[in-house]
Amino acid sequence: MKVLALPGPSPSRGRFLARGAASGRAARARGRGAPTMAAAPALAGVPARQHYRVQLRFVTEEQLFSTGPLLLSNPTTLRLEVHPAGEEADATVTDADGVCVFKCSLTRDTECCCVGQESILITLGYNSALLKFESPAELSAFANTLKRCRREKKEYSAFSQRTEEASAAQYFQFYGCLSQQQNMMQDFVRTATYHKAILQNHTDFRDKVVLDVGCGSGILSFFAVQAGARRVYAVEASSVAQYAEMLVKSNHLSDKITVLPGKIEEISLPEAVDVIISEPMGYMLFNERMLESYLHSKKWLKANGRMFPTFSDIHLAPFSDEQLYTEHHSRANFWYQQCFYGVNLSSLRGAAVDEYFRQPIVDTFDIRILMAQTVKYTVNFMDAEEADLHRVEIPFVFQMAQSGLIHGLAFWFDVAFVGSLVTVWLSTAPTEPLTHWYQVRCLLQTPLFAKEGETLSGKVLFVANKRFP
């Protein structure tokens, strides 16, 4: 027996997709069904505006090639504002009176280079401008914006290679909405478990540098600071990054948390990190392909660093649910009509059955429908590589605990936060309090009959694709 599990859209950061979509009923229950269409930000991954405090010096070509140091002759603090405009961005420097003293467009033709850890040199024709930022983190944030503007069309990050451009735009629009962030934050099991895992392992965070991947509202970054983190880099590719920045400033934590707009595959950090935190799980664990971004972020992790979460177990078991199976067939029977306003629809009935049974059902259920003990498959985030998730095969052997029709397989997952002091678990099992991940079931078009004591064997295959439906 070979079952192809086809995950649909998930609430977490979305891209492990095969051919199906989550059921509308469950999606509406979660408040996170089809992505909400909204105006796209002017430059993907960049907030509407960015503000920095800088010092400025104009440098001539002669000075640039001289052997002397590039010193700031007038170290007055100015305001640098970056405003996205299509595929470019406008940079404007103003003084305390709001008078513009320097302005340029940041494009793929902009010539620039970093000077030390806090300065960048931008060349325009025969003259250059040296901008000195207040910290390496602010320079890194500005440099990431500049990098996106200067990227050549033929250059693709790991994210771009695995995700269709239209799907990525839809995905980041979806998570750029505060309503979607609220849905996740109000999941008590999710938020409280992360809070517990971080605060109860405070020794892993005290005086440490932390990376928050896909930070969203930044809630996990705040937890890290509460646990004593020295510095947190909060990376977020959607436009919600601007709201995370607002929360950081209003909570007076700008000296602790630096929000970096952009994809983890494309941004640069000013230093390596001790701990990586993230909430990368989707439906059936793998949906949305955020796990790949989480694994990619390990390039910034120091040797012997920690990851929260650390590993995950995905569970599967056969189930029997005659009502669910009948409901799906009833939906397909609409296309069995031979006279629908004078039109014979019956030729599409087979295609409708195929489509409806390809769609995973995201909901919850009574555990009494399960017909055997679960099979567990573990993904260790410390050891796994991105390529390991492109094709995941899970072999199974079930010893049937009861006789009856097998209508499909049920899935859920647990994740573990392994800290120095305690290990904390977050479970989405049907025996535990309900989360916004619910559980997922995949139906068989043709049920299988099994007797108690018989063995059911086969494998589940997850195949990644580039679409976010």
Automatic annotation (TrEMBL):
Gene3D superfamilies recorded: Hnrnp arginine n-methyltransferase1, Pleckstrin-homology domain (PH domain)/Phosphotyrosine-binding domain (PTB), Vaccinia Virus protein VP39
Spell out the molecular function terms from Gene Ontology: protein-arginine omega-N asymmetric methyltransferase activity
Compartments it resides in? Cytoplasm; Nucleus
| One GO cellular component term | cytoplasm
The family database entries (Pfam families) matched by this protein are listed as: CARM1, PrmA, PRMT_C
Q: One biological-process term from Gene Ontology?
A: methylation
Question: Which enzyme class, named as a word?
Answer: transferase
Q: What is this protein called?
A: type I protein arginine methyltransferase
Q: Gene encoding this polypeptide?
A: LOC106509183
